[in-house]
Design goal:
The complex is a heterodimer of chains A (156) and B (767).
Chain A lengths: L1 E6 L2 E6 L6 H8 L18 E4 L2 E4 L12 E3 L12 H8 L9 H14 L5 H7 L11 H12 L6
Parallel strand pairs in A: 1-5
Antiparallel strand pairs in A: 1-2, 3-4, 3-5
Helix pairs in contact in A: 2-5
Chain B lengths: L22 H5 L15 E7 L5 E7 L1 H5 L3 E5 L9 E2 L15 E2 L6 E2 L5 E7 L2 H9 L2 E6 L6 H4 L13 E9 L2 H7 L2 E9 L11 E6 L5 E5 L7 H8 L6 E5 L15 H11 L3 E4 L2 H7 L6 E9 L5 E13 L5 H11 L8 E10 L15 H17 L3 H8 L19 H11 L11 E14 L8 E8 L5 E5 L8 H13 L6 E5 L16 H28 L7 E3 L2 E3 L5 E3 H11 L4 E7 L18 E14 L5 E11 L6 H20 L5 E2 L2 E2 L18 E6 L21 H13 L10 H7 L6
The chains are: A alpha+beta (156), B alpha+beta (767).
């Protein structure tokens, strides 16, 4: 079967097995290792990508069912080689430890902020509930998101 | 204990919250974790695991699996050159363990826990590898198992091993407990139960192996211990210099990647097939088969004077080792040493035992036996305070250890103990009390202190080495065999080198965790890497600095001692400077090396007689105090943490942001332990092998953690730092239990503190 989709702005057409997931297609076939694998059952949020701007667990999406939709990974966030301001905020506010949850965390956050321009800390926490982090305890992740929302990341 | 910093009192890079050198790669997802790796012609590997917790293997036939098209190898125990792995004391000192704990790489005639590995497969695709595992024919004859340490030590218990079910025991005795309890104004008795939990890192165990030039079997994997290359060599029966382990940046470790994981399997399969092999465990496999944290039963009798001074502690500990020894004896030792808490207790008796069962094996996990005891001694402290009507902060202030005090094991504390200040600051950080939001909701506060060693047991004679060198353009390279588990280990090494050699942080490149190409630095465990590798880099950088300034001295006409290094230059006090590349060219001309290899040896000691309390066990300790405010719904038993503050004396914060991160992350893991996490077993069968059933805290489950970083300037690490990797996970469970009692009067003694347990304690269920 042919999977048709747009990966970070580039149209792709690839032969896939009917049961092949988007996660397997990205990592095993295309070598797109910026999408990590954590549980393969849609619980941990590590493999989150954006499908037409909405977060989805790549391990639960069948590749053959993509039907031309846009898939965004973290590599799709960079602007001319520069980090996206949310990525900058994660670096600056110490939101990254082992980094394994970070790609999914960034993508979920951006999709959430598309719909909620000025969330408080509690709302940020609720939005990130589907993305597990075992290292940071979440405080600095929420700090980074809050700073990004305020724009404070760029001031100093 | 205080150390004079080499050049000038004010620090330039150390102490700054610099952006970690690995963070940029990680937000771009450019970090190549162990599974983010592939080689041409690579095979995929899978493991056949036992479905039974206790069984004999009657028949094991791999004929069908081996005959499948695309299957390159099927290995069982008889294919393993030496089917024994040593599992105690990993690192540089594999021969000094208290036991000779071993296990089979692959099971031979019997299996002792669910998930025990029996056979390995390598195939052209992962799907084929799984199919071949299914095609291995095994007949099991299930045998009687034993599933609690109490049963295991009872009469007529089925022996898990021929040596008997008692794996190890320690006894510590000091003073006269019976006499002291007899005269105490109050004696509080408590029994506590802690559960089995999983490290539950997000990156499963994974790696790729290949045979490199010169026949070197090279294994690139996620590990806290690259020195396992020696264990792999033993298993393969090849010289140790023919195995190389490259440790990747880890997607979390927390002790779960301290023991051998995929490396022996990968070594066997790549040696057998001659091809690159990849093995990535599924989440189910990781949660099923990896060693976990020991469940404990802790019994305490605590005696105190009317003024709240603790006069005696009688403590009995019983732990579940699961089916194999791994590091259980050492975990139990940590429990024994810490069982009376960070308090002056003149009369102490600790009896500790750990038993084999047919449960999943237990071994290292962040806190390493010094964690379960916090739930015991801090619950007891609160009950003593309550019985005497003393304030929870005051009872800890009165009893806190001080410099010069002797621990029950006989170790004299040589550094400052900040327990009173930490307790006061954590308590104060909670601010004004939160009013209950409804009539059926109660709010209360709890405090818990702890202490945790950093660095390895002194009779392991720990050491770490590092290489620091300049390139001709003045950029700097640090090489150190220190695995980076995500705590910023490598980045902190860069900060230390930058401080001493005056090179901007961004101009340093660091190579870590390669057993062939980086000087060995030991395990990233035991809160030891900042202490050990940090000291190694500090010492090496200082020696290199002296070496270089001797060359610079005649060039500038100034004594070497009067020179400083800053901003890529050697500078004089009168404002003249020499650019580094110029100095490095001169070094090349006169034949002085631009690099240096240094070794740091930790203070060493001899094994102590615990029962006689004869001396030093650990280099030093890190002290902490956590305070929690919780609300308890008295209609449902649901507990919600409203505010949380965690204070630790870290000696000096090399990177304050990383230190806060360790404190916040450790505290939240501790809250998971206190409130929700549990490996649920049914007669040895694990019912929680998915993140849908093994629940760890989400962002919505926990509050912000206010990290309080106290810098006493006393510690054995670089610039007087103390280790902070493990300590913050210790206090949360006790802090929560104490807060719940403050809110409701109900004392919870079993972890995790689920709504159901609270509801029962509140009498919401009719019996």
């Amino acid at each position: 079967m042919i999977a048709r989709f747009v990966l970070n702005g580039r149209p792709r057409e690839i032969d896939v097995r009917p049961e092949q997931t988007l996660l397997e297609l990205l990592r095993d076939t295309l070598g797109v290792f910026d999408v990590k694998e954590g549980c393969d059952e849609g619980v941990c949020g590590v493999c989150t990508v954006l499908l037409e701007g909405r977060p989805a667990s790549a391990c639960l999406v069948l590749a053959a069912a993509l039907r031309g939709r846009a898939v965004t990974t973290v590599r799709g966030l960079e602007r001319n080689g520069d980090l996206h301001p949310l990525q900058q905020a994660f670096v600056k506010y110490g939101a990254v430890q082992c980094g394994f949850c970070t790609p999914g965390m960034l993508l979920t956050t951006l999709a959430f902020l598309e719909r909620h321009r000025h969330p408080d800390r509690e709302a940020i926490r609720a939005a990130l509930e589907g993305n597990l982090c075992r290292c940071t305890g979440y405080t600095k992740i929420v700090d980074a998101v809050e700073a990004y929302v305020r724009g404070g990341y760029a001031r100093d | 204990m205080t150390e004079t910093v080499l050049t000038r009192p004010e620090l330039r890079v150390v102490g700054q919250p610099v952006e970690r050198h690995d963070a940029r790669d990680k937000v771009m997802a450019a970090t190549a974790y162990a599974a983010d790796w592939a080689l041409p012609g690579m095979l995929h590997a899978a493991v056949l695991r036992s479905p039974h917790p206790s069984a004999r293997i009657v028949r094991l036939d791999t004929t069908r699996a081996a005959a499948m098209a695309g299957v390159a190898a099927v290995l069982t125990a008889q294919d393993v050159p030496r089917n024994t792995l040593s599992t105690d004391v990993p690192g540089q000192t594999t021969s000094v363990g208290p036991l000779r704990a071993t296990l089979h790489v692959l099971a031979e005639d019997r299996v002792r826990h669910e998930g025990e590995p029996i056979a390995l497969v390598a195939a052209e695709t992962l799907a084929l590898a799984y199919a071949a595992v299914e095609a291995i024919d095994v007949d099991y004859a299930p045998t009687a198992g034993v599933f609690t340490p109490e049963d295991a030590l009872g009469a007529n218990a089925p022996p898990v091993h021929a040596s008997g079910n008692l794996l190890a025991q320690w006894r510590i005795a000091r003073g006269n407990v019976a006499a002291a309890l007899a005269t105490a104004a109050v004696v509080v008795e408590g029994e506590y139960t802690t559960q089995m939990v999983d490290a539950a890192y997000l990156e499963p165990e994974s790696g790729v192996a290949w045979i490199d030039s010169d026949g070197v079997i090279t294994i690139r994997l996620s590990t806290q211990v690259i020195e396992h290359f020696r264990d792999v060599a033993e298993v393969l029966q090849v010289p140790q210099n023919r195995v190389r382990v490259i440790g990747t940046y880890l997607g979390g470790g927390f002790g779960g990647k301290e023991d051998v994981t995929v490396e022996a399997y990968l070594g066997l399969l790549t040696l057998k097939t001659g091809r690159p092999v990849k093995m990535v465990w599924t989440r189910h496999e990781s949660l099923l088969s990896r060693a976990k944290r020991h469940p404990y039963r802790l019994r305490y009798r605590t005696g105190a004077t009317a003024g709240g001074e603790i006069v005696a502690q009688q403590i009995d500990l019983l732990a579940d080792a699961g089916a194999y020894a791994y590091l259980s004896a050492l975990v139990l030792l940590y429990s024994s040493v810490t069982a009376a808490g960070p308090y002056r207790v003149p009369n102490v008796e600790v009896q500790a035992r750990v038993a084999y069962t047919n449960n999943p094996p237990t071994s290292a996990m962040r806190g390493f036996g010094a964690m379960q005891t916090v739930f015991g001694y801090e619950s007891q402290m609160d009950r003593v305070a309550r019985a005497l009507g003393v304030d929870p902060v005051a009872v800890r202030r009165v009893n806190a250890l001080r410099r010069g005090d002797t621990l029950p094991v006989g170790q004299v504390l040589e550094t400052h103990v900040a327990i009173p200040e930490l307790a006061e600051r954590a308590w104060a950080e909670l601010g004004p009390p939160t009013p209950p939001r409804a009539p059926h909701v109660r709010v209360g506060r709890g405090l818990a202190c702890n202490f945790q060693s950093y660095g390895r047991i002194v009779w392991l004679h720990d050491w770490a080495s590092a290489w620091v060198g300049f390139e001709m353009d003045g950029s700097l390279v640090v090489r150190c065999g220190c695995p980076d588990v995500g705590g910023g280990q490598a980045s902190s090494l860069c900060q230390i080198a930058a401080e001493i050699l005056g090179v901007p942080f961004a101009r340093i490149s660091v190579h870590v965790s390669d057993s062939a190409l980086t000087p060995l630095a030991g395990t990233t465990t035991a809160s030891r890497q900042l202490y050990m590798s940090g000291n190694a880099v500090l010492k090496t950088a200082r020696e290199l600095r002296v070496q270089l300034l001797r060359v610079a001295s005649p060039m500038l006409g100034v004594d070497a001692e009067a020179l400083d290094m800053e901003d890529d230059h050697v500078v004089t006090r009168d404002g003249r400077s020499l650019a580094l590349p110029e100095l490095l060219r001169e070094c090349a001309r006169v034949g002085v090396p631009r690099s240096h290899l240094g070794v740091y040896h930790a203070p060493a000691g001899e094994p102590v007689d615990l029962a006689k309390g004869s001396g030093k066990v650990f280099p030093d300790y890190t002290f902490g105090a956590h305070a929690a405010e919780v609300e308890v719904d008295t209609e449902t038993g649901v507990v919600r943490v409203l505010r949380y503050a965690a204070a630790h004396d870290v000696g000096r914060a090399i990177n304050p942001q990383s230190v806060e991160g360790q404190i916040q992350g450790g505290a939240v893991q501790g809250l998971g332990y206190g409130l929700m996490e549990e490996v649920v077993l049914d007669e040895g069968r694990n019912l929680t092998t998915s993140f849908a059933t093994y629940l760890i805290p989400t962002a919505a489950d926990v509050p912000d953690v206010q990290a309080i970083v106290l810098e006493s300037g006393e510690g054995l690490g670089p610039f007087n730092a103390r280790g902070i990797g493990e300590p913050p996970i210790g206090p949360p469970a006790a802090a929560i239990a104490n807060a719940i009692e403050a809110a409701t009067g109900a004392r919870i003694t079993r972890l995790p503190i689920t709504a159901e347990r609270v509801a029962r304690a509140l009498g919401l269920f009719t019996p």
